[in-house]
């Protein structure tokens, strides 16, 4: 579904990702953990098509196509979704209006008819239930004045409406209270199926108790230094990252 | 520069869509302005002596005045002797009685502009007084309006047919010596619209005028006067667009509104004159004086404007709130792209008791455009319990443009209540990318965000105008952010 090979990324001549290899098969859930500044969001943003990053080497295939060759909106229409670590506020544009425009862009791309206002509202209501989001947030401007947790829920709500093939969730759990964490996780789990894949970026093993990953990766200083099963997350929770850092240093000098 | 910024720039650099010239023979007088020009204009229009006198006095005043320099706009000085002050379609004598008699080429021009007169007549019920250059060529629905006693005609016709009303109100809100451009207009005004709504009548349709500047090098000087008698209501729409030109064209209109006791006037403008090319060449100079007098108690005047065109905009639709309990409103969207400059805003002058005013201004700058809000709220000692709410928001698209805000406040009454809010925002790449990442392309994202920004103003426009305004914004902008 998603195949990243030897991906190198720089920002302002500074190397951030230094050769990432990652393959996500249909239906799989991959977790990416790693310390602050290790490059997790960079990876997510590069996948979504953010332009501030320069890709110096490597490739990304998405459903067999060259992802890096597509404009950000094309990637979205092809079924890639990014839930932002910091969702952006768009004052003056209502959440409904925005999401309907987004959905119609996706539908048009798929050769489907535009959804009308009535059907859209029906769909939106149904998907809001999935994340138990307050209906009031539909009429408000996108993320404008939303609480931190509301913004995160809104991201998952957008995901549910847009129905992507691959969803990258960048720290969707941070900022959520305990109940919200469970609700949002349930929402994600409800969307899991054999065709849809997830890349879940998180700092906390707790999230992975709810959204149980197939694979866990550790990203450190722009490289994936460790890959394992769910138990790797538990190990990290106990030991932190320093034991891995020593490995990296050793590997780098060897 | 990132690609999305480039897209935005490209978006901003779209060619003016409505640039074309209609080939209709013009009857034009030679360029230049002196007393004889004024006499000639008046004679061409068969005006009565009193009108000529009025013009000549204005011309005397104008000669003594000099062009104002306080606005934040820069332009090559206008050579007033190089301008032609009168042009009319040749068929002036035998004006068409219906659209069928209108020059097909003219109709085709309107068609290109997306103004299907006929459809508007039939579907929207809009009466159109189309000013093609200086003389009205198509007036509709007159009969229906006449039944209600409503007068809706060209200013020239009003001077002939309703001299008492014209004498009473012309210059009563914007006196001849008000300012340089108003004086010039008073001396040489070509035509415009006249509206009178009798006591207690609610005008059943939006009255609308489409202006067009078409003759080479012809200054356009409309003069509009709207009088709403006691307890009446009228909504007036003004919209315009002009063909592509190299020369700068001067436009100095005057609009006067008078609302008597309990009367309401809603005046909406969508302005899309040629803004000049990407390098700042050409474009209309728009120096307009618009003012409304809430003469009566509980009267109300609302200005709503969407200004996207012109190279230079100098325009301050204002209200004098004389009647007790009268209300003034100003809702404005002004967009400057490329080298456009706009210095616009309003004046609310509170004279009567319990008067209130609302100002909502949205300035959008893109390219190297400069956008200035200049507003004054003046509350005289007589204006007990006056209230004002002002909101001035600026949005920047890219980092080479500018937004400036000059709110002047002069409060002489201790009971006044004032509220002022101002914000400046920038369409960020973050916002664009967020939209992109949801499948929305950049151009749509920009217009979505800008339209969202302007929502409070668009809400005030009549429905069909709001749609047009939105489209216009998309076209003109088609660019602003970064
Ligand atoms: N646009 C940018 N300009 C300069 N530096 C950047 C930019 N984007 C990312 N970086 C740098 O790249 C590194 C990786 O950042 P990134 O946001 O990917 O980290 P992260 O793993 O998501 O961290 P966190 O866990 O704190 O979210 C950081 O050192 C960051 O400062
Ligand atoms: Mg991050």
Give the helix/strand layout:
The complex is a heterodimer of chains A (254) and B (482).
Chain A: E1 2-11, E2 14-24, E3 29-33, H1 40-48, E4 54-62, E5 65-66, H2 72-78, E6 80-83, E7 90-94, H3 95-109, H4 117-130, H5 136-139, E8 141-142, H6 148-162, E9 166-170, H7 178-191, E10 197-201, H8 205-210, E11 215-220, E12 223-228, H9 230-239, H10 242-253
Parallel strand pairs in A: 3-10, 3-11, 6-9, 9-10
Antiparallel strand pairs in A: 1-2, 1-4, 4-5, 7-8, 11-12
Helix pairs in contact in A: 6-7
Chain B: H1 3-12, E1 26-28, H2 35-44, H3 49-64, E2 87-89, H4 104-112, H5 117-124, E3 127-132, E4 135-139, H6 142-147, E5 151-154, H7 155-161, H8 163-169, H9 180-188, E6 193-197, E7 207-212, E8 223-228, E9 233-241, E10 248-251, E11 254-259, E12 264-272, E13 283-294, E14 300-307, E15 312-315, E16 318-321, E17 327-336, E18 341-350, E19 356-365, E20 370-379, E21 387-396, E22 402-411, E23 417-426, H10 429-436, H11 442-458, H12 463-477
Explain what the structure shows.
The complex is a heterodimer of chains A (254) and B (482). With 254 residues, chain A is an alpha/beta fold. In chain A, 42% of the residues lie in helices and 28% in strands. The model of chain A has no long low-confidence stretch (mean pLDDT 93). By secondary structure, chain B is α/β, with parallel strands linked by helices. Chain B has helices at 3-12, 35-44, 49-64, 104-112, 117-124, 142-147, 155-161, 163-169, 180-188, 429-436, 442-458, 463-477; strands spanning 26-28, 87-89, 127-132, 135-139, 151-154, 193-197, 207-212, 223-228, 233-241, 248-251, 254-259, 264-272, 283-294, 300-307, 312-315, 318-321, 327-336, 341-350, 356-365, 370-379, 387-396, 402-411, 417-426. In chain B, strands 5, 6, 8, 10, 11, 13, 15, 16, 18, 20 and 22 form an 11-stranded mixed β-sheet that branches. A 10-stranded mixed β-sheet of chain B has the order 4-3-7-9-12-14-17-19-21-23, covered by helices on one side. A two-stranded antiparallel ribbon of chain B has the order 1-2. The longest helix of chain B is centred in the last third of the chain and has 17 residues, at 442-458. Chain A binds chain B through residues 48-52, 71-73, 75-77, 81-82, 84, 87-94, 97-99, 101-103, 105-106, 109, 141, 158, 162, and chain B through 2-4, 425, 428-431, 433-442, 444, 448-449, 451-455. The complex binds adenosine-5'-triphosphate and magnesium ion. The site of adenosine-5'-triphosphate has 13 residues of chain A, from helix 1.
């Amino acid at each position: 579904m998603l195949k990243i090979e030897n991906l190198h990324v720089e920002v302002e001549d500074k190397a951030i990702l230094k050769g990432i290899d990652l393959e996500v098969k249909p239906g799989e859930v991959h977790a990416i953990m790693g310390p602050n500044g290790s490059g997790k969001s960079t990876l997510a943003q590069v996948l979504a098509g953010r332009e501030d990053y320069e890709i110096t080497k490597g490739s990304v295939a998405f459903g067999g196509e060259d992802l890096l060759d597509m404009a950000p909106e094309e990637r979205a229409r092809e079924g890639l979704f990014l839930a932002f670590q910091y969702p952006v506020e768009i004052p003056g544009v209502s959440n409904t209006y925005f999401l309907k425009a987004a959905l119609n862009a996706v539908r048009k791309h798929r050769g489907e008819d535009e959804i009308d206002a009535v059907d859209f509202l029906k769909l939106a209501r149904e998907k809001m239930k999935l994340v138990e989001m307050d209906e009031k947030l539909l009429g408000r401007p996108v993320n404008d004045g939303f609480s931190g947790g509301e913004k995160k829920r809104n991201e998952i709500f957008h995901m549910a409406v847009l129905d992507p093939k691959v969803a990258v969730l960048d720290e969707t759990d941070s900022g959520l209270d305990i109940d919200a964490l469970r609700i949002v996780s349930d929402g994600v789990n409800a969307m899991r199926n054999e065709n849809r894949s997830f890349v879940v970026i998180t700092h906390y093993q707790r999230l992975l108790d709810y959204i149980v990953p197939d694979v866990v990766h550790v990203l450190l200083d722009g490289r994936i230094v460790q890959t394992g099963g769910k138990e790797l997350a538990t190990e990290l929770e106990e030991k932190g990252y320093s034991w891995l850092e020593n490995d990296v240093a050793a590997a780098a000098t060897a | 520069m990132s690609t999305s910024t480039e897209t935005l720039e490209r978006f901003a650099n779209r060619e003016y869509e409505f640039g074309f010239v209609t080939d209709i023979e013009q009857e034009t007088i030679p360029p230049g302005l002196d007393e004889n020009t004024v006499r000639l204009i008046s004679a061409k229009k068969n005006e009565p002596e009193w009108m000529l006198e009025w013009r000549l006095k204005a011309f005397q005043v104008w000669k003594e005045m000099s062009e104002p320099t306080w606005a934040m706009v820069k332009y090559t000085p206008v050579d007033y002797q190089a301008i032609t002050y009168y042009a009319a379609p040749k068929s002036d004598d035998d004006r068409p009685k219906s659209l069928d008699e209108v020059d097909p080429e003219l109709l085709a021009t309107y068609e290109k502009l997306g103004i299907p007169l006929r459809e508007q007549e039939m579907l929207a019920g809009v009466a159109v007084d189309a000013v093609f250059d200086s003389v009205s060529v198509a007036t509709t629905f007159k009969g229906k309006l006449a039944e209600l006693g409503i007068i809706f005609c060209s200013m020239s016709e009003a001077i002939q047919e309703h001299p008492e009303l014209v004498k009473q109100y012309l210059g009563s809100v914007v006196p001849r010596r008000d300012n340089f451009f108003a004086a010039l207009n008073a001396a040489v005004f070509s035509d415009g619209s006249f509206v009178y709504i009798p006591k207690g009548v609610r005008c059943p349709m939006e009255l609308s005028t489409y202006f067009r500047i078409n003759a080479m090098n012809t200054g356009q000087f409309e003069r509009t006067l709207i009088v709403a008698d006691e307890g009446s209501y009228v909504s007036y729409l003004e919209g315009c667009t002009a063909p592509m030109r190299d020369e700068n064209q001067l436009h100095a209109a005057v609009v006067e509104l008078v609302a008597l006791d309990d009367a309401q006037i809603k005046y909406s403008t969508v302005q899309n004159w040629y803004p000049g090319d990407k390098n700042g060449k050409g474009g209309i100079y728009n120096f307009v004086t618009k003012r409304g007098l809430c003469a009566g108690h509980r009267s109300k005047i609302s200005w709503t404007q969407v200004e996207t065109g012109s190279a230079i905009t100098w325009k301050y639709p204002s209200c004098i709130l004389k009647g007790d309990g009268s209300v003034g409103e100003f809702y404005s969207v002004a967009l400057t792209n490329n080298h456009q400059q706009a210095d616009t805003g309003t004046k609310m002058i509170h004279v009567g008791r319990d008067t209130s005013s609302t100002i909502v201004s949205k300035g959008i700058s893109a390219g190297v455009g400069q956008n200035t809000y200049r507003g004054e709220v003046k509350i005289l000692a007589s204006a007990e319990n006056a209230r004002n709410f002002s909101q001035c928001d600026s949005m920047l698209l890219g980092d080479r443009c500018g937004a400036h805000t000059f709110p002047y406040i002069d409060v002489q009454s201790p009971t006044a209540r004032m509220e002022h809010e101002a914000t400046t925002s920038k369409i960020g790449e973050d916002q664009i990318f967020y939209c992109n990442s949801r499948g929305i392309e950049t151009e749509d994202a920009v217009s979505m965000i800008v339209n969202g920004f302007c929502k409070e103003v668009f809400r005030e426009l009549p429905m069909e105008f709001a749609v047009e305004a939105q489209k216009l914004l998309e076209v003109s902008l088609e660019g602003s952010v970064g």
